[in-house]
Amino acid sequence: MTQPMGRRGWLKGALASAAGLVLAACDRINADPRATAVLQSAERLTRRAQRLVSDRNALAREFAPADISRDFRANGSIRPADPDYVAHTAAGFADWRLVIDGLVERPLSLTLEELRAQPARTQITRHDCVEGWSSIGKWTGARLGPLLDRAGLKPGARYLVFHCADSLGPVGDPNSKYYESIDLIDARHPQTILAYEMNDAPLPVPHGAPIRLRVERHLGYKHAKYVMRIEAVEDFAHLRGGRGGFWEDRGYEWYAGI
Ligand SMILES: Nc1nc2c(c(=O)[nH]1)N[C@H]1C(S)=C(S)[C@@H](COP(=O)(O)O)O[C@H]1N2
Ligand SMILES: [Mo]
Predict the structure, then answer these.
(1) The domain at 7-250 falls in which architecture?
(2) What's the 76 CA to ligand 1 centre distance in angstroms?
(3) Cα of 143 to ligand 1 centre, how many Å?
(4) In the chain, domain spans
């Protein structure tokens, strides 16, 4: 191989990047089998990175009515004892409001009736809990994307935090309150809904009444039940344990994509 001196130095630096590997391999691919292996693994890495980005908007698999689980498991909080929540259930959620605030132009406070009047979506999907069980259910709810448009996200908003009514642990301890967070790609995903119906009936208490998040490209713990407030934030590092969710603060991954 005859190469000007300068090119070798440039190659050294470029080898650090996948693009560099491709260029380097272009003239060495037949000479060095190890280079071929490195090239192939770089190629796989690039494809994986590409898939991670482009597939974020792909739909989760949807099922047929016959696939719906007869006994969809309920998990985590199933009957919150928190006094405010108990009062809401006693009143049939008549005074319940969903608050959407934080980094938004027009904070919203919506009744269940108003939520039901929003652009909606119905989907039959499989819920996968990290504990190793799955159930298939039919969900109907308000699409989150149009709701965010209504509230008008401010430019600094990057995540949504879901504040829930239930405590997993001692009631009254602020660290017991369930919470979750997602980014705006998941928030605007077409299957991301605030579900108020499960299997054609009002969402029952064990599954998160009156509304629960369905964020179908994620594992079960991201699907916040008993949602009271959605807060648009720039960052969640200073909230609670700083990792963006009740289980995340206890070691689970923030990104639970499936
Ligand atoms: N508010 C709240 N949301 C929650 C939980 C919880 O305990 N509280 N548990 C999570 C977990 S781990 C799972 S698997 C699902 C369970 O939803 P399900 O009861 O409808 O099966 O809700 C998630 N969302
Ligand atoms: Mo779970």
Answers:
(1) Alpha-Beta Complex (3.90)
(2) 5
(3) 19
(4) 7-250
